[in-house]
Amino acid sequence: QLQLVESGGGLVQPGGSLRLSCAASGFTLDYYAIGWFRQAPGKEREGVSCIGSSDGGTYYADSVKGRFTISRDNAKATVYLQMNSLKPEDTAVYYCAAGPPYYHCSGYVPSSTRYWGQGTQVTVSS
């Protein structure tokens, strides 16, 4: 069974850092572009960042560029989102998603999403 599980969320003060993890099971992560999304209360889900499968290219929404870094460790079947200089407006539930195999990033989101994790809450507040 193909599964994505996020972890690493929590409460952090403005200016702080968190590292989210997206662990994959049931499939070989190497062949999949992986995206991070977030959904704040009362808002639509939005793309945050994407990392390609073959070239490992990384892409970011303007709102997080320069503060967030996406990376992958295929041997550990895990994708990370390092979040620095966090702001209150980063507060949201963060999700990772994978597309069908061999699909690519389309800008900072996967060109197609098929598998989703359950989400992890990130709260930035003093």
Rounded radius of gyration (Å) = 13 Å
Mean pLDDT over the full residue set: 95
Oligomerization category of the chains in this entry: single chain
Order of helices and strands: EEEEEEEEEEEEE
Contiguous low-pLDDT stretches (5 residues minimum) are none
Helical percentage? under 10%
Which secondary-structure class do the elements indicate?
A: mainly beta
What's the story with the biggest beta sheet? 7 strands, mixed
Shape: globular
- Specify the number of helices: 0
Distance between the termini: 40 Å
Number of strands: 13
Tell me what portion of residues adopts beta-strand conformation. Answer: over 45%
Model description:
The chain has 126 residues and is an all-beta fold. It has no helices and 13 strands. Strands 2, 4, 5, 6, 9, 12 and 13 form a seven-stranded mixed beta sheet that branches. Strands 1-3-8-7 form a four-stranded antiparallel beta sheet, with no helix packed on it.
List keywords for this structure.
126 residues; mainly beta; seven-stranded mixed beta sheet; 13 strands
Helices and strands in order:
Layout: E1 3-7, E2 10-12, E3 18-25, E4 34-39, E5 46-51, E6 58-60, E7 68-73, E8 78-83, E9 92-98, E10 105-106, E11 109-110, E12 115-116, E13 120-124
Parallel strand pairs: 2-13
Antiparallel strand pairs: 1-3, 3-8, 4-5, 4-9, 5-6, 7-8, 9-12, 9-13, 10-11
